[in-house]
Amino acid sequence: MLKELLFRQNTPRWVIFFIDLSIVIFSIVLAYLLRFNFAIPDNELPLIKYAALSIIGIRSISFLIGKPYSFIIRYTSTEDSKRILLISFIGSLIIAGSNFISYQLSSIFIIPFSIVILEFLLTTTIMIASRTYIRLMYEDYRNPMKGKFPTLIFGAGEAGLIAKRAIEKNAKSEFAIVGFVDDDTIKSKRRLENKPIYRGDELSKVLQEKEISHLIISPQNLKKSRLNQITLLCLENKVQVLNVPSASKWINGELSLKQIKKVKIEDLLGRESIELSKDLIGKQIKGKCILISGAAGSIGSEIVRQVVKYDPKKVIMLDQAESALYELEMELSASKSSKSLEIVIGDICHEERMRQLFKSAKPDIVYHAAAYKHVPLMENNPFEAVRTNVMGTKILADLANESKVQTFVMISTDKAVNPTNVMGASKRVAEIYAQSLNAHSETKFITTRFGNVLGSNGSVIPLFRKQIEKGGPITVTDPEITRYFMTIPEACQLVIEAGSSGKGGEIFIFDMGQSIKIKDLASEMIKLSGLEEGTDIQIVYTGLRPGEKLYEELLNDKENTLPTHHQDIMIAKVETYSLEEIKPKIEELVSIDLDDEMKLVKMMKEIVPEYVSNNSKYEALDKAENQNLQQN
Questions:
Q1: What is the 3-state secondary structure (H, E, C) of 83-108?
Q2: Which pTM does this prediction carry?
Q3: 39 CB contacts (<8 Å, ≥6 apart)?
Q4: Are 408 and 431 in contact (CB under 8 A)?
Q5: Which of 164, 415, 444, 549 is catalytic?
Q6: How far is it, in rounded angstroms, from Cα 27 to Cα 434?
Q7: Is 401 in contact with 437 (CB distance < 8 Å)?
Q8: What are phi and psi of 180, to 5 degrees?
Q9: Which residues are CB-neighbours of 140 under 8 A, at least 6 positions away?
Q10: Residue 129: strand pairing partners
Q11: Who has greater pLDDT, 146 or 401?
């Protein structure tokens, strides 16, 4: 009841002013008692009245000028405390100065200098302490511990402390911080803002004993292996895991409670930060005109974000998706590089439009990310796969060659290795053309090949997330299906790195780490959502889709790799083709009539002999080919 009366409305300023003066009077009395060991000499008594009046008068004037009474006490901050300290210090200087002047005039120190110092310390300490106490009372009133989730913060450093304060400052917070956990054993058994700090190896024990419901991970540079270890331990104990974002994402340098969110599967599957040759990349990109096709897509848009950091002369964002391009432009509009951005709406298969673009823009570097990537959709629409992935690539590559572009970097896929579907085969044909053109061009044609990227448009993770939000079920094609995964930023970083170091003609492959079972991925996402598989949500197996295979590969059986300067980038030794041999075949491929899908796919199989269809109507072509071989 007392707290409700106290915090129902703001205390009038004049009341705070007189409370501050009361603190001054109390401090004067206490200072004299302390100075004389609680036995004030008789000869000091006549002077106390004048001393008190002098101090009170000067303090009143300093308070009226400095206005510490105008601060909202329930929100007292460090800056408010600094201001009170400054006002008190200046007031004490004036008191000391007037005391010295009185001595010059009457040869008597009306106020002993020890009293001046003691009064300053007492007044300042009591004013700040009382305001801080009231603020803490108010925070407790607004944010009571009762009914909240017992929560631990992993990391007893600066970020952990900031996270605690952000939580406790927000009245709507559902978390009650009961302590910290830190791997630094020096911090263990200590306290931080009166909360205990536990050792990292005690985490399992603490989670159980304290009945923790949430754990917030605060370190900015926690290793992925440790993050996975902590998350797995929490999930086993049915504890929700949240994450503090990097300081660069804090709003105006301050962490908001709304920014502390659940750990995502992308956080766990991503690897340690990649070390890039920034000088080499900067030398290639700075002051250059960069053209990025498919700039509205997951990969293309991230390449834009990465490239603008290296101070290019211009970045041309090419795509057909106007809304997505507009959103990307709005996202980047506040950056320093926004003036160098140019949006071009266009279709890479429209040759005259692309020719006009190359002629006017004169790009130095092309990152070709535009492509159709959905396996089942392309299996049912092979002409569109060939039109965009093959003909579109050929048009851009030919124009890059004609325009003497310095570097052409093509984004390919692991599905181009031993392709079992139209999409993978179309990307392999595009790889072959770009590589064969390199030997006849001043342009360096470089191909980068990697697996699935986490969170990209159409990837399995956004699909699972939507299915979980709807209550399930989660659909997985096969319990044994596996895929390689890489985060979008790290994939694009490696693309740019490979593009800056390539000499032309290479197919770079990236270290994708270990392949992951999609079933395990789904189970992990269910746990991260605070749900229980089989009880709250089901996993349903739907069977392989057309063109899909259980295991993806990064290298053909006949291929091996060569190392590069970067440990995560290798060069694939692949079978090469002459331009004279491959160009007529590709031109024939893109000119096949729209009503003859079988002829189109058969031609692709001739160009890419290792293309064997799987779970698809085009398996009939492979069977017919095998029969012909047996008869011959």
A1: HHHHHHHHHHHHHHHHHHHHHHHHCC
A2: 0.68
A3: none
A4: no
A5: 415
A6: 84
A7: yes
A8: -120, 155
A9: none
A10: none
A11: 401
Lowest-pLDDT range of 221-235, 250-264, 489-503: 250-264
Based on its alpha-carbon atoms, the radius of gyration of the chain, rounded to whole angstroms, reads 35
Q: Which residues of 227-258 are buried (b: 16+ CB within 10 A; e: fewer)?
A: beebbeebbebebbbbbbeeeeebeeeebebe
* Mean pLDDT score of the chain: 82
Amino acid at position 54, single letter: S
Burial class (CB in 10 A: 0-12, 13-18, 19+), 423: buried
All structural domains of the chain, each given as residue ranges with its CATH number in brackets, are 2-142 (no CATH), 149-263 (3.40.50.720), 278-453+485-512+552-607 (3.40.50.720)
Report the C-alpha dihedral over residues 278, 281, 286, 292, rounded to 10 degrees: -130
Which tens digits make up the pLDDT trace of 293-302?
Answer: 999 988 999 9
Buried b (16+ CB within 10 A) or exposed e, 32-55: beebeeeeeeeeeeeebeebbebb
CA 404 → CA 121, 349, 498, distances in Å?
Answer: 76, 20, 20
Say how far apart CA 207 and CA 42 lie, in whole Å. Answer: 64
β pairing state of 365-368 and 407-413: parallel
Q: What mean pLDDT comes out for the span 377-395?
A: 95
Interior CA angle at 566 toward 561 and 568, to 5°?
65
Per DSSP, the residues of 578-625 read: -HHHHHHHHHHHTTS-TT-HHHHHHHHHHHSTT----SSTTHHHHHHH
Helical ranges in 201-245 per DSSP H: 203-209, 224-236
Q: DSSP code of 69?
A: G
Tokens (6 digits) for 154 = 């992993």
Closest by CA to 393, choosing from 420, 411, 416, is 411
pLDDT tens column, 456-478: 666 777 788 888 888 878 888 88
- Residue pair 293/514 in contact by the 8 Å Cβ criterion: no
Told to judge if 309 belongs to the known catalytic residues of this protein, a careful annotator would answer no
Model confidence band, residue 107 (pLDDT cutoffs 50, 70, 90): low
What percent of the chain stands above pLDDT 90? 23
